[in-house]
Amino acid sequence: MRVLITGVSGFVGSHLADYLLENHDVEIYGIIRWRSKRDTIYHLENKIKFYECDLRDLSSTTAIIKEVKPDRIFHLAAQSFVPASWNAPAESLTTNILGNLNLLEAVRYAKIDPLIQVACSSEEYGLVLPNEVPIKETNPLRPLSPYAVSKVGQEMLSYQYFKSYGIKSVITRGFNHTGPRRGDVFVCSNFAKQIAQIELGLKPPVIEVGNLSAKRDFTDVRDMVRAYWLALEKGIPGEVYNICSGTCYTIRELLDKFLALSNKNVDIVVDKARLRPSDVEILLGDNTKFRKQTGWRPEIPFEKTLEDILNYWRERLGNSALVGIAMAHG
Question: I want to staple 223 with a disulfide (CB 3.0 to 4.6 A). Which of 73, 78, 298, 325 is the partner?
């Protein structure tokens, strides 16, 4: 089986490649952009075949799809940082919607019939009313960011191409997912990095935070990529599935769990730059539909996830500090 992962150099893409190599007999092909950071995929260099491509370019996307002829496509490539979508809304809409469109068009031009997992987001739900929690797939979509709008667009395009051309997409609305290798702009990694910096004496004992009252449903990325595989193994094309733990934490509770893993006393300071123009107050998902269809359940305890993230940053920053010391001493 030939599997193509778009955005393979990203946080989720690298974990998905790891999962497939360890658990399934597949040939893996990955799409990266020429300027993509490769620190998450160094260990994959000789295990999968990489193609440089910007999905916003239809001709190069089509050429790769025709060459690889994948049986399954995991479409993960996206502008995925919500705050950035306010600063550069056009880039988020173009990257996510046009990139999705070009991928679907490339599949149509190549006359192949793959299963496609389109990684969408719980951010699409946006403004959720108190009586709508936990959130089911049937909940109205009231997006509150350009990023969320772009994901609604991906979803609608994928559904339209399924109905119009029979292109078999399965839509996953992933709630917050985290784990080692997550970029430091995302809340779990950001807290863990700050704590590790404090432990190593690289910054004062002050944690900078945004909105601590927001409530989020977190899943370990290693559980999430297993869910993505099952979405194509057992999911129904044209359908939408929530992937989530079904458990909610405030960002304050998340921070407290991190601080319990460290012996440092810290001050907590709100950084206004971290506050969003409009924030989704609660994202708590109902995974019943996906669980019944696939048998998936999250397996990794949240505390284990947070410990792994903190240890990842301790090791990464510790190694950097050692390299700096070595260079300083010639």
Answer: 298
Q: Is the pTM of this model over 0.85?
A: yes
Strand order in the sheet with 115-121: 49-52, 27-32, 2-6, 72-75, 115-121, 168-174, 240-243
Q: Given pLDDT bands bounded at 50, 70 and 90, which one contains residue 326?
A: very low
49-52/206-209 β-pairing:
unpaired
Predicted confidence band of residue 330 (pLDDT cuts 50, 70, 90): low
In this structure, the strands spanning 177-178 and 219-220 are: parallel
Tell me the residue type at 279: D
Q: Is the pLDDT of residue 324 over 70?
A: no
Q: How far is CA 254 from CA 18, 121, 261, 302, in A?
A: 27, 20, 11, 10
CB 216 within 8 A of CB 248: yes
Under 8 Å CB-to-CB from 213, ≥6 apart: which residues?
250, 251, 252, 281
Instruction: Mark 282-294 as b/e (b = at least 16 C-beta within 10 Å).
Output: bbbbbbebbbebb
User: 13 with 39: CB under 8 angstroms?
Assistant: no
Whether residue 269 contacts residue 207, with contact meaning beta carbons closer than 8 Å, is answered with: yes
Cα gap 291→203, rounded to integer Å: 43
Q: How far apart are CA 189 and CA 107, in angstroms?
A: 35
Q: Which of 157, 20, 151, 149 is nearest to 101 (CA)?
A: 157
Instruction: Give residue-wise pLDDT tens across range 3-30.
Output: 999 999 999 999 999 999 999 999 999 9
- CB of 211 closer than 8 Å to CB of 167: no
pLDDT of res. 277: 74
SS3 labels along 113-158: CCEEEEEEEHHHHECCCHHHCCECCCCCCECCCHHHHHHHHHHHHH
